[in-house]
């Protein structure tokens, strides 16, 4: 844990930015939690991709508590790392692990969908007991980043999370000493993998739709691409800016955008599910008693794809 000797005990509140983070987090959690509930129930949960999406959803909601809810509170109060070093350090480690787990799941889900589209006869590697192995991988990834890497610490002066604690001692050192190389590698891999997998997914789906249901090409293809672009766009921005800000000074607007992108990475999936995924939306409406018809008739066939998350 970093020492705070000699650090000025000052507060840097910003009510507007703090409320923005906090309200965004709460709104996204309200939208996301019902989606997780319906995805965790049969028949959806019987599909491999929904198991991954439920796991990822739980990680997303927990991480929103830190990167949005608590970040908003810290920004409103203006407290820095040195006002509560133990709590900040522990939560910073957890948030680092949750971000890593989300990245792993995001790439794995894209890989899963690409595999099932390209090699459907071998899709059994994601079913049954195999799925426990796949779920174990992001869990191990989470443990590594949580316990063996530098924590992300919120700094109200820059309105974002940094690896540099910005204490009196750290200001006298080379800031690059706090750079997190595994984090940089992780973010770079996410960008490369998503750029590799999603063009394949969209092209394959467009071909299948054209071959089987020509009249629905435009609507379905646009929907798939829109869902992918919205969520992947947040991942690209978040991954890039959080790496860039660790090495180079940037205007505060970019640090705010980077944290908004992080919130979007974890919060947008729930909104996308409800707005663009009819199966999940119908079941959420049924969960609240708003819609009762048709939902029970939805049949999920093996290897059917629901494109609500990257």
TrEMBL record:
SUPFAM superfamilies for this protein: Family A G protein-coupled receptor-like
Pfam families listed in its UniProt record: 7TM_GPCR_Srt
Annotated TM spans: 20-40, 52-74, 86-111, 131-148, 188-207, 228-247, 253-276
Keywords: Membrane, Transmembrane, Transmembrane helix
Lineage: Eukaryota, Metazoa, Ecdysozoa, Nematoda, Chromadorea
Species: Haemonchus placei (Barber's pole worm)
Name assigned to this protein: G protein-coupled receptor
Presence of the UniProt keyword Transmembrane helix in the record: yes
Keyword Transmembrane among record annotations: yes
């Amino acid at each position: 844990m970093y020492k705070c000797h000699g650090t000025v005990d000052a507060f840097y509140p910003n009510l507007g930015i703090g409320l923005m983070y906090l309200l965004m987090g709460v709104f996204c959690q309200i939208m996301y939690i019902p989606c997780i509930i319906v995805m965790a129930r049969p028949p959806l949960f019987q599909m491999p991709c929904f198991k991954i999406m439920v796991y990822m959803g739980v990680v997303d909601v927990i991480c929103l508590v830190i990167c949005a809810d608590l970040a908003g509170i810290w920004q409103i109060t203006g407290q820095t790392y040195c006002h509560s070093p133990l709590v900040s350090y522990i939560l910073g480690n957890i948030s680092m692990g949750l971000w890593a787990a989300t990245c792993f799941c995001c790439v794995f889900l894209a890989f899963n969908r690409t595999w099932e589209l390209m090699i459907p006869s071998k899709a059994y590697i994601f079913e049954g007991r195999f799925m426990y192995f796949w779920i174990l991988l992001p869990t191990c990834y989470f443990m590594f980043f949580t316990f063996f890497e530098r924590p992300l610490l919120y700094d109200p002066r820059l309105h974002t999370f940094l690896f540099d604690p910005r204490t009196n001692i750290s200001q006298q050192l080379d800031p690059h000493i706090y750079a997190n190389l595994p984090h940089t590698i992780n973010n770079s891999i996410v960008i490369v993998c998503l750029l590799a997998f999603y063009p394949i997914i969209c092209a394959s789906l467009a071909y299948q739709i054209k071959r089987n249901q020509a009249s629905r090409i435009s609507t379905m293809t646009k929907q798939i691409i829109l869902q992918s672009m919205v969520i992947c766009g947040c991942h690209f921005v978040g991954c890039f800016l959080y790496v860039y800000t660790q090495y180079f000074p940037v205007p505060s607007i970019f640090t705010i955008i980077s944290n908004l992108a992080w919130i979007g990475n974890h919060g947008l999936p729930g909104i996308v599910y409800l707005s663009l995924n009819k199966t999940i939306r119908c079941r959420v409406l049924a969960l609240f008693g708003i819609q009762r018809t048709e939902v029970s008739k939805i049949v999920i066939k093996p290897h059917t794809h629901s494109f609500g998350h990257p």
